Amino acid sequence: MSRLLLVGLPASGKTTFLGAFFHLLDEEDKCAYQISRLPSDMGQLNKIRETWSRCEQVPRTPRGAEVDAFFQIKSVSHTFDLSVPDNTGETFIQLLEDRKWDLKLADQVKSADGVILFVHSVNITRPDRLDSFTATARELAGKAGETVQTERVAVTETPFSYRGAPTQVLLTDLLQMISEKANKSLRLCVVVSAWDQVPRQCKSPKGYLKSQYPLLDQYISANLASYQAVVLGLSAQGGSLPEDAERLKKMAPLERVTLVSEESSTHDLTKLLEWFYE
Amino acid sequence: MAEIQQPADAPKTDDPSLRIEWGEALTLAQCYSISSGEKTLFIVLAGASNTGKTTFLINLFDLFQHGLIDNYLFAGSRTLIGFEQRLHSLRILDSDREAAVARTPSSTQPQVLHIRVVPTGQMHEPINLLIADISGEQFKDARDDESAARALTFLSEADSIVFFANAELVESEMTISNAIRDARLISRRFFELRLLKPSCGIFSVLSKVDALVGSVSRTEVLKKLTEAIETQATENGYKTHPAIAVRSVPVEETEGVKDLLTLWMKDKRQPRQAVGPSRSGESSFRNFGLTSGGIS
Q: What is the ipTM of this complex?
């Protein structure tokens, strides 16, 4: 059994990916990989796929309703079993905060061949520049005493919460934890989701990661023994929902999807498996 | 009420292998798991309260966060929560210049923050920076009291030490000595008691240089700080580096923090090699000075 782990924070595009991925594997005979045998339990998977097909926002997976998708996959060259568990983003947040592995997730990591890490092009908590918040503080300090006092009380009561840390810090921490738990070299596919929202002048997923998630990018580049990585851009919906829903409904499902590498782009999302299995 | 019996084959959720014992600042004992596996530089930031030690540490992490360090890649950290906690303190308290960073808790044992770096270019070995963050109160006590200085036993493990002086205390050329006095006295205490090993790199930082008033020359203050540390160090057989100016925040990214990182990494004394346990179960990185009492 081959296993790919989907990793990402809440609203990073994991479930939308799974909906599009399942649909293309199941219905598109032009794709590089197809399902050779239906999963035994595909109720939840079908719900996700149907929502995706209707060009509706795929709802976030609630805890307890995680999908453990098992596929028998065939390509031109071979057939294999693939497990793609869809853990909720909250599962990963809890791991980061509690510093304790969920037993099931730990087993998934130990048996994984690779990781698909989702970074979102819009849902990002960026690190502040120290310059900026110190400048703001100085500006406040220059105002009337009462105002400064009020502002200070408001901010000093904000307790520290690790989940509020910059996205790149949390994702880097997750990769560190996974590497330690897996205790082997893993293939890593970093998927920049909502690629259609990335400014048009940015054509390189790798360049995007370097500019928007520099800490994560450095971590991956510096840890080649732990992760052999590729960075891809993915537009799994084809646009923003609900704004673009009517336009998207007029398109063939396959054409809504765009997977972008450094060299080319394709509508065939299943080609992502080539990074892991070819 | 009858107790609910767990089935014999139920997974043990209290399994210690499921716990992740790192994330916040490390204790000295926890540092061994890092130093035993890879090259390590143990760096002590020394200075009285409000001299910018923790701010310096945050600035270093901030530069990696924004990809502003050219020659080194961030290769991981066992203390990402520790950095974020300190950043959070800076965010919420910086409107009060007196409390710019939440004060480091007072203890003779430091909290250690970790950054693993890899030089860019060819494939180089990673180097782990273990940076001790200890309260200014402890250094003030060490300045005033020999026994308090001897209690800082971890100093004997330092590969580099950085003495901090606060430029905010310079009001005119006549008061330069006020700013560098603590750095001079603290370093002198350490040198005289031989609390640092002979190979320890000696650095000094003039922090918050953006607070210097117009008539005072930064170069002059830096020169006096360098001389103050150098004089004490040379008399006791230590070799020093020229003082470096650091702003409260790295407005010009090339300034100060980056320079010091480069100096640490290029220091001719090689970082300590990874050391596994010896036959006796100890290593040369032993217990980070938890029991020793200075360099004999």
A: 0.89
